[in-house]
Predict the structure.
Amino acid sequence: MRVPQSAQLNAVPEPAAVGVPAVKAYKYMMVNGRVVLVDPATSEVVVELAD
């Protein structure tokens, strides 16, 4: 699944990236109260994080 090019993507906060360095390559956005990691190069959703 891809997000629209117009979607506002945010950098992963540094404290989260310290705990899981692999997420630094991605951006995130909130969708219906959930965090969605997106590959900024392809706009592809990588993972949706549940509570």
Q: What stands out?
A: The mean pLDDT is 93. The first strand starts at residue 10 and ends at 11. The CA atoms of residues 5 and 45 lie 12 Å apart.
